[in-house]
Amino acid sequence: MFSASCAVWGACGQCAESALGGPAHNRFTPFETVVAAGGAFPEILVNTASLNVYLRVTDLRIGGARGFSLERSYNLDDDRSGPFGNKWAFNLGESLAPDAERRYWTLRQGSGRLEVFAAAAEPGRFFPAGGAMLDLAQNAAGYTARGGGVTRTFRADGRLTALDQNGFQVTLEYDAAGRLTVARGAGRIIQFGYDPRGYVAGAADSAGRTLEYGYSAEGYLTQQTNADGTTTRYEYDGAGRLTAVRAGPDAVLIAYSGQPEGVHITLPDGAVRTFEAGRPREVRAGTGEGGPASVYASTPLGLVESVTDAAGNRITYAYDAAGRRTRMVNAAGDTVRFDYDAGGNLTGILLPGGARWTAEYDAAGSPVRITDPRGNAWRFGYRDGLLMSLADPLGAPSAVTRSAVGLVDAFTDANFNACTFQYGGDGLLMRWTDALGLVRSYEYDGAARPVSRTDPDGSVV
Fold first, then answer.
1. Where are the beta strands (DSSP E) in 342-438?
2. What's the Cα-to-Cα distance from 106 to each of 27, 47, 322, 336, 376, rounded to whole Å?
3. Which residues contact 245 (CB under 8 A, 6 or more apart)?
4. Are residues 294 and 416 in the same domain?
5. Between β-strands 221-225 and 104-108, what pairing exists: parallel, antiparallel or unpaired?
6. What pLDDT, in 10s, does the model give residues 105-163?
């Protein structure tokens, strides 16, 4: 049921090579958000370099300093299957698989993005074939991938067993069939159940929230019953392309064209967003036939090369060999330059006229000092990767007090004004009290989405 190919080519022949995943894993790839996160529908974006349609769904969110959640991602251009069906990946299901000759290893991330590693001359060592800022090594128990402040631990068979972010760890357990059964983090759990074909049929967390999933005969996710009791439905065409997302009586409709190659998304209010391939590696994004449009041009690897707005204003970008943005030139010819350290952290921004911002980082990649063009510096202190203190350019300190699981209990500024915070059993913010003693409280739905805020005067927003 689970494929293991390494190369990914998009359905759009005129476009750049398809980069799966969303903006978080494609730093300089141009995306347009068609449906924002937080509402009844999943977040829906279009990669304007490849015309890959990308959805991100948060099924369960457990509050905390770094958060613990169950998230799924759909990629139109993904030819793989997994526990949530064809073309769907999820954040707790990352996997590592070699090719038949064991020359290349592919890490499939939770967003669906694929990172390919080649075996190095030194046994047990690998180097990223696609420029990923990850370090992969083999050990007696399996594999370890480090990068971006996260350490991923895999079994010898490539199944993920732990995610560690500066000491905050999520551990994963499997049954005899190799199916994920339990994820543990921040003292809480998410459990999974399966149907006879091996697809996830349900999930539940330690707060008692539950989800259910249904699939087509072809293995596509067709329905999810959310923790708040609502249902989201998915429809596909004969080629397995997503054509509709329905929430109650409303729908987001997705259509595809061939000449020119394009994606056309109709929103519940009838508005249409159109993305069409023009010249090689160019995509026109607009509001329909004859409407205002922007034109995105990309490099062969999907990095945004230029953006031209409806008025003809053009911004161009340049990159180094590692794919990091080094220069931006606006329509007026003003140039901004960017510098990086060996870890890929942004260390300098040179503005037109010579003004410069700089940044310094600790070994974990967290900024410890930011200096503006006037020489004013802000300093930051951390514990286990969590912000604990900061000092302004005059040296005035502010401090953060955290709970045992890293939640912010209080913030005290340089004048000793303190705000305090209270959380529910699932780690979601319930109340915060400002320095004047005024209280604001929050309520959430069954899917942990905020539904109301009560202000100090009693008004509800």
1. 346-350, 356-361, 367-371, 377-383, 386-391, 397-402, 408-412, 418-423, 429-433
2. 20, 22, 19, 35, 44
3. 41, 42, 44, 55, 232, 233, 234, 235, 251, 252, 254
4. no
5. unpaired
6. 999 999 999 999 998 888 889 988 876 778 999 999 999 999 877 899 999 999 999 99
How far apart CA 186 and CA 170 sit, in angstroms, is 8
**Assigned domain for 92 exists:** yes
- What phi and psi values does residue 369 have, to the nearest 5 degrees? -155, 130
Do 281 and 137 sit in the same domain of this protein?
yes
Contact present, 111 and 73 (Cβ < 8 Å)? yes
Query: Which of 88, 112, 18 lies closest to 234, judged by CA?
Result: 88
- DSSP letter, residue 340: E
For the beta carbon of residue 369, count every other beta carbon within 10 angstroms: 14
281 Cβ contact list (under 8 Å, min separation 6): 14, 15, 16, 49, 297, 298, 299, 300, 305
Q: Which domain holds residue 421?
A: 408-461
Tokens of 185: 């983090």
Residues constituting the chain = 461
Cis (ω within 30 of 0) for the bond into 260?
yes
332: exposed, middle or buried (Cβ count in 10 Å: 0-12, 13-18, 19+): exposed
Positive or negative torsion for Cα 102, 105, 106, 109: positive
Per-residue pLDDT tens for 397-418? Answer: 999 999 887 889 999 999 999 9
Exposed / middle / buried, residue 229 (Cβ in 10 Å: 0-12, 13-18, 19+): exposed
Whole-structure pTM value: 0.88
Quick one: which of 438, 442, 435 has its CA closest to 457? 438
Look at residue 341 and tell me if it is in a domain: no
The dihedral over CA atoms of 115, 119, 123, 127, expressed in degrees to the nearest 10, equals -50
Half-sphere exposure of 306 (CA within 13 A, CB side): 14
For the residues 364-368, what does the mean pLDDT come to?
91
Nearest to 33 by CA among 16, 13, 56: 56
| Assigned domain for 370 exists | no
